[in-house]
């Protein structure tokens, strides 16, 4: 048995390795096993427990992508508009044509989906009409959403092929074949064990990145963010380190959220038809609507892009007309009045109670902390409004953002330069991704991420069949890899007796303090909340220098237990994700996403020079970054 500082090494050979246990991973596991040839060796490795891991951990109250009667082309148009025109239409169309089937499976597996009156007994597959909150979104009773989806994945794979609480640290390139992934290495955060995997094909779906920027929460609230704190940029960092091309890493998502609890706003805007106003009660989307004319599509969109909605809101905050309020009171009272008119007083009373329960349930289903804030602050949403606030920036490729990895598209739609044989394969042979991992293709949400995991599964199987004769050959010995992973433990053992204050030591830095330093740099120089999302070239150049110093000092991170070892490695991943973001932002000489960030040297959208993808790559041999443009194409016309 291994002991702390002296781990056992376990080596495993598989055909297909899935890194992550979230929505995309669960979709992949399910689809893989539908088509798997007998004897296929699959392993799924999640840093947490699949039942509650990833972004859907707390549950959700809506599925944000369900097309129903609408066409995939319309879905492409909506996503392109929301992401300011620079997206991969091929990838989005592909999600659009497959996503509904995943939602129908969720229902089959036990997820309660709200139905229109009269259709309660019919499933979606049987033609039951869902309750739509918006054009693309449907309402669910989703507290157990992740448990349900994970159960199906576990059943497909078998628990013997799943390892929970194993954190993957890095991917390994083949020593014999150029630009070919051969394996991955990680450690258990519960036992003293290092795991080394050899694999023919790998799906890297470890979610987005949170806590790269200093969050608004302070002190004991620091664990609270909107996107999940446990998604630490592992997807982007590990792919970048082995030379996979990244795309649109300058993009970030800054959601407007209920202040302090980070409660999502979608159901309030769309289902309850609430308006958000400044302190004078003015609807900033109306008052400031002329501002939309400065940005594509120049005031013509029916629903302005998410960043532009922020842009109009932030003007109010900057000019002293905050706080911004979500008028829950006005919306619920208006609905109550309409019930009274339609159903009479007695029946309306019941309906109003139900409505108020739904308002609470929206948060109890997916963001319990927000219900906590309401209870703690004695907020009755039907009587008083609640404050909204833009959050700290997040990196993600599945929600209303589009940073991620550059992947091969579907053979039947993608132009030649966007297709290199296997759908959702990165530019590294054998390495695939989905969900938050795929760049330039946002608005997949939970359902689209699951569907994309399924798309990747099929392509991976094809890749495996085409490469059956391949034998992975890993760099370095097992003990060298183990030493690298346990370096923070060694650093601690060596220097721990130098001081009596365990977290202050001239020889080392704890992960918590290093994370604070990273967050301070990103926040103050790279357009975080402290500068109201504003930066410029001079500020970002300082950040480049400071990140360089931070990377040198990061070698001195320590781990006092296995949990902290995970914290240390999460930080290494966050640093890479943050650096990619910064380098891309410096490269893009325009402000493509006002409301997400402003580069004041170029505070405009430049369609002529910058309607293009910004991609980057690290040379895995030298560690050098290159950042460059790739041509954009609209496949679906307006
Ligand atoms: O309200 C490692 N999302 C919403 N989607 C919807 O459909 N409806 C909503 O209502 C949505 N909203 C919402 C959403 C998310 C959150 C947090 C809130 C509200 C509060 C978005 C979706 O959840 C999201 O799009 C998908 O979950 C993305 O799927 P995927 O598979 O790309 O990521 P994941 O599910 O987070 O899973 C990541 C997995 O990786 C593991 N992991 N494992 C091993 N080694 C490592 N180094 C690892 N690093 C991470 C994780 O444990 C996890 O299993 S609303 O705001 O609009
Ligand atoms: P959110 O709760 O903000 O994550 O949003 C959930 C869904 O609703 C996403 O599909 C958003 O794009 C959409 N959405 C949120 N707010 C609005 C709005 N004001 N107008 C239109 N769509 C919105």
Structure in words:
It is built from 18 helices and 21 strands. By secondary structure, the protein is an alpha/beta fold. It has a five-stranded parallel sheet with strand order 6-3-2-10-17, with helices on one face. Strands 1-9-8-7 form a four-stranded mixed sheet. It has a four-stranded antiparallel sheet with strand order 16-11-20-21, covered by helices on one side. α2 (72-82) packs across α3 (89-108), α5 packs across α17 and α15 (511-525) runs antiparallel to α16 (537-554). The structure holds ligand SFD and adenosine monophosphate. Adenosine monophosphate binds at residues 64, 134, 136-137, 255, 264-266, 269-270, 303, 306, 309, 400.
Radius of gyration: 24 Å
Rounded mean pLDDT is 97
Q: Multimeric state of these chains?
A: single chain
Uncertain stretches of 5 or more adjacent residues: none
Q: Record the strand order, biggest sheet.
A: 6-3-2-10-17
Overall, the morphology is globular
Question: Helix share of residues?
Answer: 25-40%
Q: Largest sheet at a glance? A: 5 strands, parallel
Individual helix count: 18
Q: What class, by secondary structure content?
A: alpha/beta
- Chemical compounds bound to the protein: ligand SFD, adenosine monophosphate
First-to-last CA distance: 63 Å
> Hey, roughly how much beta strand do the residues contain?
5-15%
In total, the number of strands is 21
């Amino acid at each position: 048995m291994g002991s702390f500082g002296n781990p056992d090494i376990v080596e495993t050979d598989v055909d297909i390795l899935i890194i992550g246990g979230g929505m995309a991973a669960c979709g992949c596991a399910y689809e893989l096993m539908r088509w798997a040839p007998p004897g296929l060796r699959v392993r799924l490795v999640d840093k947490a427990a699949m039942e509650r891991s990833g972004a859907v951990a707390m549950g959700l109250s809506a599925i944000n992508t369900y097309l129903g009667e609408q066409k995939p082309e319309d879905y492409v148009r909506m996503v392109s508009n929301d992401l300011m025109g620079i997206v991969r239409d091929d990838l989005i169309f592909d999600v659009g044509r497959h996503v509904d089937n995943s939602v129908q499976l969720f229902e089959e597996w036990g997820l309660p989906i709200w139905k229109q009156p009269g259709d309660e007994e019919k499933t979606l597959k049987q033609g039951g009409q869902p309750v739509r909150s918006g054009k693309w979104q449907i309402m669910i009773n989703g507290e157990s959403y992740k448990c349900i989806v994970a159960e199906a994945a576990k059943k497909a794979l078998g628990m013997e092929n799943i390892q929970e609480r194993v954190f993957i640290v890095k991917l390994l390139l083949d020593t014999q074949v150029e630009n070919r992934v051969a394996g991955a290495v990680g450690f258990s955060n519960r036992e003293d064990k290092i795991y080394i995997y050899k694999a023919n094909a790998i799906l890297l779906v470890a979610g987005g990145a949170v806590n790269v920027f200093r969050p608004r929460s302070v002190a004991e609230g620091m664990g609270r963010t909107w996107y999940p704190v446990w998604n630490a940029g592992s997807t982007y960092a590990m792919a970048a380190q082995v030379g996979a091309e990244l795309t649109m890493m300058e993009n970030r998502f800054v959601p407007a959220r209920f202040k302090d609890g980070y409660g999502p706003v979608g159901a309030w805007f769309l289902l309850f038809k609430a308006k958000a106003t400044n302190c004078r009660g003015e609807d900033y989307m109306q008052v400031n609507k002329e501002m939309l004319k400065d940005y594509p599509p120049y005031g013509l969109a029916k629903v302005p892009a998410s960043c532009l909605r922020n842009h109009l809101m932030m003007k109010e905050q900057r000019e002293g007309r905050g706080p911004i309020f979500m008028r829950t009171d006005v919306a619920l009272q208006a609905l109550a009045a309409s019930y009274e008119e339609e159903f009479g007083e007695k029946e309306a009373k019941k309906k109003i109670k139900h409505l108020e329960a739904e308002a609470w349930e929206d948060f109890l289903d997916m963001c319990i902390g927000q219900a906590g804030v309401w209870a703690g602050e004695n907020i009755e949403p039907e009587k008083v409004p609640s404050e909204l606030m833009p959050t700290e920036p997040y990196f993600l490729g599945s929600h209303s953002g589009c940073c991620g990895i550059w992947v091969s598209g579907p053979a039947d739609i993608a132009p030649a330069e966007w297709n290199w044989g296997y759908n959702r394969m990165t530019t590294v042979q054998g390495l695939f991704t989905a969900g938050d991992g795929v760049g330039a293709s946002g608005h997949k949400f939970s359902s689209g991420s699951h569907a994309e995991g399924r798309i990747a599964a099929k392509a991976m199987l094809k890749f495996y069949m085409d490469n059956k004769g391949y034998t992975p050959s890993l760099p370095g010995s097992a003990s060298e890899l183990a030493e690298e992973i346990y370096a923070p433990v060694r650093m601690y053992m060596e220097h721990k007796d130098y001081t009596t204050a365990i977290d202050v030591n001239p020889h080392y830095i704890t992960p918590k303090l290093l994370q604070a330093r990273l967050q301070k740099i990103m926040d103050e120089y790279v357009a975080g909340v402290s500068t109201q999302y504003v930066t410029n070239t001079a500020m970002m150049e300082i950040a480049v220098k400071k990140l360089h110093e931070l990377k040198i000092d990061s070698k001195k991170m320590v781990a006092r237990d296995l949990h902290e070892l995970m914290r240390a490695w999460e930080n290494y991943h966050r640093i890479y994700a943050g650096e990619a973001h910064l380098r891309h932002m410096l490269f893009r000489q325009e402000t493509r996403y006002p409301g997400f960030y402003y580069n004041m040297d170029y505070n405009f959208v430049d369609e002529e020079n910058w309607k293009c993808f910004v991609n980057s790559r690290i040379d895995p041999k030298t560690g050098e970054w290159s950042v460059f443009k790739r041509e954009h194409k609209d496949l679906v016309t307006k």
